[in-house]
Fold this sequence. Notes:
By secondary structure, the chain is of the alpha/beta class. The protein has two domains: 11-178, Rossmann fold (3-Layer(aba) Sandwich); 183-387, Dehydroquinate synthase-like, alpha domain. The chain has helices spanning 22-25, 40-43, 46-54, 71-83, 95-107, 115-119, 183-201, 209-231, 236-249, 263-275, 279-293, 299-310, 321-338, 352-364, 378-387; strands at 11-14, 31-36, 58-62, 88-94, 131-137, 147-152, 157-162, 170-173. Helix 8 (209-231) runs antiparallel to helix 9 and helix 14 packs antiparallel against helix 15. The chain is globular, with a radius of gyration of 21 Å. 50% of the residues are buried.
Amino acid sequence: xxxxxxxxxxxxxxxxxxxxxxxxxxxxxxxxxxxxxxxxxxxxxxxxxxxxxxxxxxxxxxxxxxxxxxxxxxxxxxxxxxxxxxxxxxxxxxxxxxxxxxxxxxxxxxxxxxxxxxxxxxxxxxxxxxxxxxxxxxxxxxxxxxxxxxxxxxxxxxxxxxxxxxxxxxxxxxxxxxxxxxxxxxxxxxxxxxxxxxxxxxxxxxxxxxxxxxxxxxxxxxxxxxxxxxxxxxxxxxxxxxxxxxxxxxxxxxxxxxxxxxxxxxxxxxxxxxxxxxxxxxxxxxxxxxxxxxxxxxxxxxxxxxxxxxxxxxxxxxxxxxxxxxxxxxxxxxxxxxxxxxxxxxxxxxxxxxxxxxxxxxxxxxxxxxxxxxxxxxxxxxxxxxxxx
Length: 389
């Protein structure tokens, strides 16, 4: 196991009715900016609960954060925060709103060109406004980590950043807020955390047994509850488990002391930036192809994944090592398809032209040595995308 330093300062307020708890989680004298997206929180009752909990505090609002939060929009929000002398941000929405709020928190305190935050991956952030979040769309895990991804459409860029100053102080996870989600968004909330776990787990062994077992447990829980949650849209317990899986998938716990990949995400980001696919849709397309192309480098962990997650074992005489690896990849593909996420570029009317465009973007953004061993070159990325056709 590799050395690591781990601290997660985010307080989780989980369960029905926990939005009311923000009344004691935010300082009474705080000047708050409430950040949200298209306004769904006003239709599902979340907005009214927030306003009631905030009481007499001074509150301004910023709405319109996009599903892929836009740099220019977030800069406007940062300007508003400075103008209104805001000293606490409150994000209400899914991962995109929370990601956007992280950027706002940093940008409102940043001197110089805010684009540098993204160009330097957040390493130059020295100050950020405190903020909390109310999660209404579980998927990204942004509610309990310090990372974010921001889009800049005019230059077709989707850029990640992170900094310890960008952890939420608290996050409310009330599963009832997810009961009205459209099927497509619930699908995304199943696929996204599944791949988050895979990026930290399916690399190469380093003797981190507990991290592996935790990762496998999250995967098994998503596999067991995801299809049921889609079939039973009013089931609180199923939604609660999906919500907690999404948080646990990317709060840093299973990533401690282990190598991490993230090449599926980096390639997927370019597909979103170029063609507007949902983030989870790109992951469902790229991951199976990535595993097939790189199965030799991931051989040992793929066999472990096959056995422990999908119960495909040598003891059951289920073929050669390669046969069992392929069977596990097929199971993964079928799971994505079963929950509503197609796994081929052609399912989104994309062909060879998309491959060339994505490779150009990867080169432009210096994503030329990806993966846990930095061996996913542009040539390997091209091979992955070709396998995903």
